[in-house]
């Protein structure tokens, strides 16, 4: 069953190609900010501030409501030192927006994250940004993106999808267009394409609970927080669940609090359904890869390999 009212997407971009600006504009376009509220903080840079408040849950991820669809925007680290983490967080996504500067074209971090998105078999649409910039060459940037996808082993379906789903944007000026010269002055063509063309999660809402932890956060107040995608069923605050670790060991645990993404922060909720991304408080020794499942009817998910910490030698 498809969860038509959810889109989980990643934005793939090299540093400075405009991811933060684009996300700010998507939030503005969906009225995430009250009329009189200035967008002082650039949202994806809000991590430190969130940390100071004592609890950081998905601080760099955001969620937008548009046309009755909840769009979870999953942040991906761009640096090659975080290869394992990129692979893991992309497990939460079904689609991606490949965001590229119209003058620079794809750059090393574009390549790095894109290779993981292709390997994860995500549907990838293209957003050529900064079309207002001097030296912008949107057609060349697009062709370079498609060549790069081919280089990185995208299959025919992925390539065809990318070719047919392109928007041209000037994030700084707050517009996205289906044609660089069409004169549109708002962000809706981008939001429409995300909602209409990127896939909804293909999950079983009525099945037994299965959620997999891909990121662990920590708060001095509540301890470890397991964050991941729900693959089937519904998780509730208060549920007694079975936690299955990577090594196969099992233990019962209780969900004390549950959160989902909500615009720039998170919202405490009583339940979260398959297809959504949740943060679970109360599972004291939770780790990356843990599967949270129904004790009566446990579901197995593919284990997540965790790389040993790497030291970068410069
Ligand atoms: P990020 O590193 O990908 O998050 O990029 P930012 O959103 O921080 O943008 C990097 C720089 O590019 C900033 O100075 C933005 O104002 C600028 N920028 C973002 N979008 C556009 C655009 O559409 N046109 C132009 N000319 N500049 C942009």
Automatic annotation (TrEMBL):
Subcellular location: Cytoplasm
Enzyme Commission identifier(s): 3.6.5.-
Keywords for this protein: Cytoplasm, GTP-binding, Hydrolase, Nucleotide-binding, Ribosome biogenesis, RNA-binding, rRNA-binding, tRNA-binding
Domain named Tr-type G: residues: 4-202
Enzyme class: hydrolase
GO molecular-function terms, A-Z: GTP binding; GTPase activity; ribosome binding; rRNA binding; tRNA binding
Catalytic activity: GTP + H2O = GDP + phosphate + H(+)
Binding positions for GTP per the UniProt entry: 16-21, 129-132
Highest taxon above the source species: Bacteria
GO cellular component, one term: ribonucleoprotein complex
Record bears the keyword Hydrolase: yes
GO terms classed as biological process: ribosomal large subunit assembly
Function comment: A 50S ribosomal subunit assembly protein with GTPase activity, required for 50S subunit assembly at low temperatures, may also play a role in translation. Binds GTP and analogs. Binds the 70S ribosome between the 30S and 50S subunits, in a similar position as ribosome-bound EF-G; it contacts a number of ribosomal proteins, both rRNAs and the A-site tRNA.
Family from the record: Belongs to the TRAFAC class translation factor GTPase superfamily. Classic translation factor GTPase family. BipA subfamily.
Assembly: Monomer.
UniProt protein name: Large ribosomal subunit assembly factor BipA
